[in-house]
TrEMBL record:
InterPro entries: Cation_efflux, Cation_efflux_TM, Cation_efflux_TMD_sf, CDF_Transporter
Protein's name in the database: Cation efflux protein transmembrane domain-containing protein
Gene3D superfamilies, per database record: Cation efflux protein transmembrane domain
Principal subcellular localization: membrane
Species this chain originates from: Rubus argutus (Southern blackberry)
Length: 184
């Protein structure tokens, strides 16, 4: 959960860099983050497939959602900064608000989908095997193992470390840009 928050925070930080001083450098940082998210999504999907790690595959799906949300944020920002015209005498600023509304709706829909899926699995497990409910409250039956079910765990670990390094690098690039803009 914390890692997800950090990713959303980094998207908002990059967007904030565009707002503080809308310039080509701020937009380049946002595009760099978008390109990194695309690369991470592809790398995680391939790594998850090759290593057999469902956690890495789930993180790849999360990275794809970051790409979609970042694309919407960048698009709405670019449309919002368009100059006034006859049809929009007050400018296009509301497009950014519409983009934020769209992102919020997508996040709420995703959360609802995850909750629905989890509830469906739990109810399916309980209806298929009523003893599951009893074992949760009384005793834990050990007819399974707690080992790692991956073919290449070092590959999955390497991708995780790379992902953290890329996201941390993006954070520091964005922070440095914000600091340089405040000084200017």
């Amino acid at each position: 959960m914390g890692f997800r928050f950090h990713n959303l925070y980094s998207v908002h930080r990059r967007l904030a860099a565009l707002h503080i001083h809308p310039n080509p450098t701020g937009e380049k940082i946002f595009r760099l983050g978008l390109a990194a998210d695309i690369g991470l999504a592809a790398g995680k999907a391939l790594t998850g497939y090759l290593s057999g790690s469902t956690a890495i595959i789930a993180d790849a799906a999360h990275s794809v959602s970051d790409v979609v949300l970042s694309s919407i944020a960048l698009w709405s920002f670019k449309v919002a900064k368009a100059p006034r015209d006859k049809e929009h005498p007050y400018g296009h600023g509301k497009f950014e608000t519409l983009g934020a509304l769209g992102i919020s709706c997508m996040l709420l829909g995703t959360a609802g989908g995850i909750a629905w899926h989890a509830l469906d699995i739990l109810l399916g497990m309980y209806s298929a095997n009523p003893e599951v409910g009893q074992s949760l409250t009384h005793e834990h039956v050990h007819n399974h193992h707690h080992g790692v079910d991956m073919e290449h765990p070092s590959l999955a670990l390497s991708m995780t470390v790379l992902s953290i390094a890329v996201k941390e690098g993006l954070y520091w690039i964005t922070k440095r840009q914000e600091k340089n803009r405040v000084v200017d």
